[in-house]
């Protein structure tokens, strides 16, 4: 069945592996994670907003796409929408003539990064929200503006939070996306093409299944929804570099070790990573976050940028050989599966002459193993797989790191009680 295999757009999105989230809005100016739609638009006033600094930093982190919160649950819009006055147009920023979405879109075009947009379905400012039909028109109007005026979109992020019990016209939303942005990935709601991994720590777990029959919705309470049919829906792991999604003066970015731990458990398990970087009240990413993200991007490149030269050979019966031609010392392996015919590998083992070196379930878009340094010349990869499984890559690395860093689990994001 077609839906069990990836579309070319899904494959391209999986190959991107990493994106960066930008949470920015009225909350930024009040130290809040959520607000109820009553904070004055006049309080939105970034003094040095520089979208190029955001996008450049995302690129340095290794991201191929960004996702901007154009409207969070409070309803405040970062573009001058015609649908509500609760937007940048009513703020002092650029005398009400600014458009943050346009600035981020321009920076993306200039720097060669793909653009994704988040538009919260839950809207605590719109008076019509209580009337589902009226709100559908309002929401579709906003989505039409975003899908028409900012060039090609790579991803549309539909956040389930706060929407429990509210009916949206997902059929019309899907038709609008199909009409205006057919290549955009649709996150988690309506007619999704990608799904939420189910937590806000940025962590997937082995196995990572691309074909699923249910998805998890909403972040502060996980609600599981059964799909009408099994679908190919690769997961995206969202997590913030700081405890909150929005910027707060008293918060610090995560350590390099923590970011690497997340990377191994998202990208290293065949899921996409969406790392949130929150701009501050200046409209800039804080210097310490920029430094941390640069260290992170550089360390990922140092570890995985240059595989040791080797020949890969299919041996038949789900067995593959990696031959380095001479004894080499390695402490990491990176495997990738050819997904063009669906996800086929269920399990895998990597053997050297000395025995088992690494094993796991999913290979998917990318699987990374770390282990104590071993000197090997030849390795065999054994797949437990549906017929026709093929490896797209097997690479060995000597990084100096011999294990996957422990992850410091955080307490769940502290959402305000007034929700
Ligand atoms: C959640 C929201 O409630 C948070 O504020 C944040 O936007 C996160 C990415 O998703 O559902």
Question: What fraction strand?
Answer: 25-35%
Under CATH, the topology of the largest domain can be stated as: TIM Barrel
Under the CATH scheme, which class of the largest domain?
A: Alpha Beta
- Classify the helix fraction into a percent range: 10-25%
pLDDT averaged residue by residue: 94
Rounded Rg: 22 Å
Overall description:
The protein folds into two domains: 10-305, Glycosidases (TIM Barrel, Alpha-Beta Barrel); 311-397, Jelly Rolls. 21% of the residues lie in helices and 28% in strands. The chain has helices spanning 8-16, 51-61, 100-111, 132-149, 170-180, 256-265, 287-304, and strands at 18-22, 65-71, 114-119, 155-157, 185-187, 195-196, 211-217, 223-232, 235-240, 272-276, 311-316, 319-337, 345-352, 355-360, 367-385, 391-397. It is globular and about 70 Å long. Beta-L-fucopyranose (FUL) binds at residues 33-34, 159, 161, 219, 238, 245.
Short description:
The protein is of the alpha/beta class. It has helices at 8-16, 51-61, 100-111, 132-149, 170-180, 256-265, 287-304, and strands at 18-22, 65-71, 114-119, 155-157, 185-187, 195-196, 211-217, 223-232, 235-240, 272-276, 311-316, 319-337, 345-352, 355-360, 367-385, 391-397.
């Amino acid at each position: 069945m077609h839906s069990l295999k990836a579309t070319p757009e899904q494959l391209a999105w999986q190959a991107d592996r990493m994106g960066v989230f930008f949470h920015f809005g009225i909350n930024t100016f009040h130290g809040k994670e959520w607000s109820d739609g009553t904070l004055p638009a006049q309080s939105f006033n970034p003094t040095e907003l520089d979208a190029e600094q955001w996008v450049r930093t995302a690129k340095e982190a290794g991201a191929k796409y960004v996702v901007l919160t154009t409207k969070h649950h409070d309803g405040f819009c970062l573009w001058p929408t015609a649908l509500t006055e609760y937007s940048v147009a009513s703020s002092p920023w650029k005398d009400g003539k600014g458009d943050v979405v346009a600035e981020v879109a321009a920076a993306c075009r200039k720097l060669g990064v793909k653009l994704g947009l988040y538009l919260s379905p839950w809207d605590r400012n719109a008076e019509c929200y209580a009337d589902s039909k009226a709100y559908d028109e309002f929401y579709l109007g906003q989505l039409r503006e975003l899908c028409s005026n900012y060039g090609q979109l790579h991803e549309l992020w539909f956040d389930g939070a706060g929407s429990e019990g509210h009916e949206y016209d997902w059929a019309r939303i899907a038709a609008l996306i199909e009409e205006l942005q057919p290549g955009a990935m649709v996150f988690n709601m309506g007619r999704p093409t990608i799904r939420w991994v189910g937590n806000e720590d940025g962590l997937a777990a082995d196995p990572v299944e691309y074909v699923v029959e249910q998805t998890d919705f909403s972040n502060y309470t996980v609600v599981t929804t059964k799909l009408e049919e099994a679908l190919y829906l690769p997961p995206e792991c969202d997590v913030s570099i700081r405890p909150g999604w929005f910027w707060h003066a008293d918060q610090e970015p995560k350590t390099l070790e923590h970011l690497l731990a997340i990377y191994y458990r998202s990208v290293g398990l065949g899921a996409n990573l969406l790392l949130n970087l929150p701009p501050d009240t200046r409209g800039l990413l804080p210097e310490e976050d920029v430094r941390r993200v640069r260290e992170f991007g550089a360390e990922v490149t140092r570890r995985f940028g240059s595989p040791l030269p080797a020949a890969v050979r299919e041996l038949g019966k789900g067995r593959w050989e990696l031959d380095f031609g001479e004894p080499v010392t390695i402490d990491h392996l990176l495997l990738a599966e050819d997904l063009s015919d669906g996800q086929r590998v269920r399990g895998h083992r990597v053997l050297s002459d000395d025995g088992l070196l690494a094993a796991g379930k999913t290979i998917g878009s990318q699987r990374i193993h770390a282990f104590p340094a071993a000197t090997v010349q030849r390795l065999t990869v054994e797949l437990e797989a549906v017929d026709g499984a093929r490896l797209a890559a097997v690479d060995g690395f000597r990084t100096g790191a011999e294990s996957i860093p422990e992850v410091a689990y955080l307490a769940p994001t502290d959402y305000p009680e007034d929700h």
